[in-house]
Amino acid sequence: MSSKDLRPPAVCPNCGENVPPKALACPECGADYDTGWKEYDVDADWGSPEDSFDYDESLKKEFSREIIPTHVKPIWWITGVVLLLLVVIGLLRALI
Question: Does residue 48 form part of some domain?
């Protein structure tokens, strides 16, 4: 089955723009069957996006991060602070 035989989605899954019924690609972002509609099932009942969205969980993920990322080892933070201090001392000595 070629991409010409497939019916496009009513709304582009990539950008959310309305797609004309016989369009070969999204008029807004250019997505087509090969670049973004392949995973999309026209006949599936996906429901509303708001049904599965948890606003409180989203806020928690977005704003409850620590200042120091957990994936950075402490030695790199110490190295960064020492280098910053050396640069500041060098700048102060150059001014005097």
Answer: no
pLDDT of amino acid 43: 47
Domain tally, the chain: 1
Residue 56 placed within a domain: no
Q: Supply 1's token pair.
A: 């089955």
Q: Residues 19-35, buried b or exposed e (16+ Cβ, 10 A)?
A: beeeeebbeeeebbbee
Amino acid type, 46 = W
Q: Measure CA of the first residue to CA of the last residue in the chain; give whole Å.
A: 76
User: Are the C-beta atoms of 19 and 26 separated by less than 8 Å?
Assistant: yes
For the entire predicted model, the pTM comes to: 0.35
What token pair was written down for 54?
Answer: 């948890």
Please report whether residue 21 resides in a domain.
yes
